[in-house]
Amino acid sequence: MNTKGIIVLIVCFILPALGLAQKVKYKDLMVLLNAKQYEQAEPHLKKYLKENTDNPSAYLFMAITYHEKSLKNDVLKQTEILTANIDSAILFYDKAYPIITEKEIKRNSENYQMYTRRDLITGEFGVKQSDVLLDIETRTKGLKERKDKVILLKNYFKLSEAQYLRANTYYKALQDQFDTKKELYLLSDDVLLLSLEKLSSTFDSCQATFKNYKTTTQAIGKTGYNQTIDLQEIKDFKKEGSTLIDFMEDDLKLWNYSEWSKKTIRIIKDEVYPVRNELLVFDSELNKLREKIKKDSLPVNASELKKNPVFTNLKKWDNDPMPSGVFNMKISELEYMTEETKKNKLKGGENIPKRIQLVKNELHLLKLLDSATHTLLTTTAWEQDAKFYKSYISGAYGTVDVLKNLIHAMQEFSKREVQAKTKELEELSHSLKWVVDESDSIPLFKDVPDELLYRPMVIAETYTAGLKLTETHPVGYFYSISPARTAEQKITFQVDTATFTSRNIPLIKGISLATAEPVYFVLFYSESKVEGKTPVSIAKISKKNGLEWTSNFSTDLPPVDMKYTAINGE
User: Fold this and answer.
1) Cα separation of 445 and 326, whole Å?
2) Alpha-carbon span 141 to 89, nearest angstrom
3) What is the 3-state secondary structure (H, E, C) of 58-115?
4) Is 274 helix (H, G, I), strand (E, B) or coil?
5) What is the C-alpha to C-alpha distance for residues 269 and 380, in angstroms, rounded to an integer?
6) Which segment of 10-14, 489-493, 516-520, 536-540 scores lowest on mean pLDDT?
């Protein structure tokens, strides 16, 4: 049987004896103490010390017992018990130290067997007082240092845990204050920046304190704990960052509040705040452009205005920003004013087709303006946007009501202008159907009323020709058509009076040919044949010479086209 087995057997016999004995025998107790069975010996040793206060080794072993207990205590969960055991150990070391004399050691050397060593001079085994006292001093000093370190360790641990909890509380307060990331940025102010800086500072302090905790852990040695921080990035403001963690765990997945708050501060300072100023600057720029158009009739490039960075910058936090709607409304008005300036530069009725196109453009832009105002008035969450864009509204308009009144006025303006432009377009479209010759008007459409004297047979883009009814017989006419619908060239010529009469006007048709010179050929023929042939009247007109000649003849078949050869004039 080995030594350990013998000790266990002795302990098994000693414990019952100690329990039954009315008085504890120290020599029996020493068997347990020398076997380092401090936990089993503790109650009996305490009982012994109540009855015997003059045994130095008993105090020493009581100190060692508390010392060993303190080493088994959890440094974080049993800190108070651990420090109490250290205090008790130091207390008993202090009691033992002054009364362990040379005489005591010589008389009771068996009680100090653990200090037995060979004397280097004599070669004999024995116990020296100096060895015992040095051990007590070393143990006492080590316990005091361990106590201080454990207390410091626990303080660092509790402080880092409390700082993280405080940071978590600050973060959750922001989550409660702002429903979305959009609100966080659009409602940001200097108070929020202070809150974010406090959050960042608190979490930075948490990490610094935890670093001190780890350093203290290394100084203590084995503590049973090996926590390491694994920082977690906050990507979703509302869904992440609120959960807590047990700091006793080894893998501490901590939300990186410092990184998130510093990033948020940077965005607010470098992007949100500047955009607020950009809103005011751009709104003022649009107002100045409006005045320039009114005063100097200067056109604006709306497409370039819509490329302003303020539009994309707002989209970072708001998918449908109210200021963008206001800007689009103002740009639509500027586009309309620019188009109106172009039209006003045309003199009177000059170039009616172009005026019609410009009016159509105006109507299109007015409808865009009306749509922009309607969208702003019906889809904008004014109460909420008044908070989101408080600085913009107050800086550019003063109050929300002033801005809304402006939009209402713009909407009413667009509706009035639509009515006016629609009427103008109708009038211009009507004037497009006539060539004005002083007090006379020549129709540019075929189905003319019976009371009109003019019967158009040819209607081209730059000229018209037909028959004019007179009291005796019809005469041919040719009018050039200017963009202003005035007759720059007016020609009348004789036709076959025997064939082309007022009565058979419905049977008369016309074809024409224009050359590059320019020279015009106008041909009229009757579908009512005379002696089996088709009567024809033709006139040649040039811009330079006017009416050059006319000719009446008959053809076997109705003419369908004309061709002109410039070389021989045929």
Assistant:
1) 46
2) 11
3) HHHHHHHHHHHHHHHCCCCCCHHHHHHHHHHHHHHHHHHHHHCCHHHHHHCHHHHHHH
4) helix
5) 27
6) 10-14
**Is residue 26 over pLDDT 70?**
yes
Phi/psi region, residue 518 (left: phi>0; alpha: psi -120 to 50; beta: rest), is: beta
What are the Cα distances from residue 437, in Å, to 347, 465, 489, 541, 560?
18, 14, 10, 18, 30
Strand-strand pairing, 228-232 and 251-255: parallel
Tokens in use for 55? Answer: 């045994």
Amino acid, single-letter form, for residue 437? D
Are the C-beta atoms of residues 446 and 456 closer than 8 Å to each other? Answer: yes
Distance between CA atoms of 476 and 330, rounded to whole angstroms? 55
Q: Is the pLDDT of residue 20 over 60?
A: no
Give the residue among 537, 545, 558 at the shortest CA–CA distance from 466.
537
What are the pLDDT digits (tens) for 220-237?
A: 999 999 999 999 999 999
Structure tokens at 322: 């109210």
Interior/surface letters 29-53, b for 16+ CB within 10 angstroms, e for the rest? bbbbbbbebbeebbebbeebbeeee
Sign, CA torsion 282/284/286/288: negative
Question: DSSP letters along 213-231, please?
Answer: HHHHHHHH---S---EEEE
Report DSSP state, residue 530.
Answer: B
- Residue 349's SS3 state is coil
Three-state DSSP at 128 gives: coil
- Give the C-alpha distances (Å, rounded to integers) separating 384 from 32, 472, 554: 80, 81, 84
Tokens describing residue 498: 């025997």
Q: Which two tokens stand for residue 99?
A: 């009364």
Residue 532, H or E segment: none
User: How many Å apart are CA 452 and CA 481, to the nearest integer?
Assistant: 19
Question: How is residue 553 written in tokens?
Answer: 């003849």
